[in-house]
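REQUEST ID: PR-0412
SUBMITTED BY: lab tech R.K.
PRIORITY: routine
TASK: structure prediction, single protein chain
INPUT:
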Amino acid sequence: MALSKQEEGLNALENAKDIQNKFDKKGKDIQNRLLDVIKREENIVLEETKIAKEKDAFSKLRKKLDLVLPQLSGDEMRFLDPKLNKHEAEKEVYFKTTQLY
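STATUS: complete
OUTPUT:
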């Protein structure tokens, strides 16, 4: 009887150790995941800071460029942007085909 109780106690102790090991493993896994998330957040903050600095530098360069480049007239803009020419040509064709002569 005492031997069976001792064996039962040892089995319970072994089960408790297994459960403790599982919880320890899960705890370490959660901790590792949390550290990964923290590292990612730090990288995101660094990237956001870098992008903000690049955006500011780009804005400064663009302002300097606006001072150097002349303002384009409407004709010059149409000449430089073929989409505007295409749009105007399509509009002209549409109106010519829809008007009755």
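NOTES: The chain has a mean pLDDT of 86.
REVIEWED BY: pending
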